[in-house]
Amino acid sequence: MTTVLLLILSVVTGVFLGKHFGKKEKLAKNLLILSAGFLITICLNEVFPQVYTSSGSSSLGIFVIAGVLLQMILEALTKGFEHGHFHHHSEHNILPVALMVGLFIHAFIEGIPLANEQHEMSPYLWGIVFHNLPISFILGAFLFNRKGESKSSSSYPSILIVALFALASPMGMLLGNYFNPDLQPYFLAIVGGIFLHISSVIIFESNKNHNIDWVKIGLVVLGVSLALMMHLFHQHPATHSH
């Protein structure tokens, strides 16, 4: 129950902040960079070790690549919301239905491995939470601050999109309970590919004029440090085998 509450709160909080502070694009970008540093560290220190220490790991790299490719396909629907590119597109180029479908599939798949996490407050869960906050911030900014639309005309579809996104990971977690636990490494491998693609795009995007952006580097280091602290203080099982 705590896991579900955290997942929903991460989306609701992000949307609330986006609705009221969404015009501050620098804040959204900084949140994304911080979360990317956190996410890539969780991916490399938590997700991939579980994947590659499991049985049948010789073929699991294919599923990591599948996760990368899946995320690339989903971004055709979301237009890069996951790494803050919504402002690069005309409002009319982003179809809310396509956006809703893309974000739902993305979050739903991330929720499936939570069903077999051995610790309720796992670093993997916190990776999703930290990942949800900036995406929801951007989503809230886009949905509730669109030009040329009255608040009443856009509120109901917007609330529906937010609700579906908030419930997507809990629904994925619910479905995960019906899968054989031996499939956990395969789902983690797919999600690892998704995490790796999103975080690396955010971190390695070219800076203006290719100058050193010390703020960006500092935020990545901060995100990495937070994830490493969580990794070090989290009690890991003696083996990751299933």
Low-confidence stretches: none
Count of beta strands: 0
Mean pLDDT: 83
Our count of helices gives 8
Q: What is the helix content?
A: over 70%
The helix/strand class is mainly alpha
Overall form:
globular
Main pleated-sheet profile: none
Strand content: under 5%
Radius of gyration: 18 Å
How far apart, in Å, are the first and last alpha carbons? 24 Å
Secondary-structure element series? HHHHHHHH
Chain-wise SSE layout:
Elements: H1 2-21, H2 25-52, H3 60-78, H4 96-111, H5 123-144, H6 151-176, H7 184-204, H8 214-233
Helix pairs in contact: 1-5, 1-6, 2-5, 2-7, 2-8, 3-4, 3-7, 4-6, 5-6
Outline of this structure?
With 242 residues, the protein is mainly alpha-helical. It is 71% helix and 0% strand.
Report on the structure:
- The chain starts with a helix and ends in a 9-residue tail after the last helix.
- Helix 2 crosses helix 8 (214-233) and helix 3 packs across helix 7.
- The chain has eight helices and no strands.
- It is mainly α and 242 residues long.
- The mean pLDDT is 83.
From the structure above, extract its key features.
242 residues, mainly alpha, globular
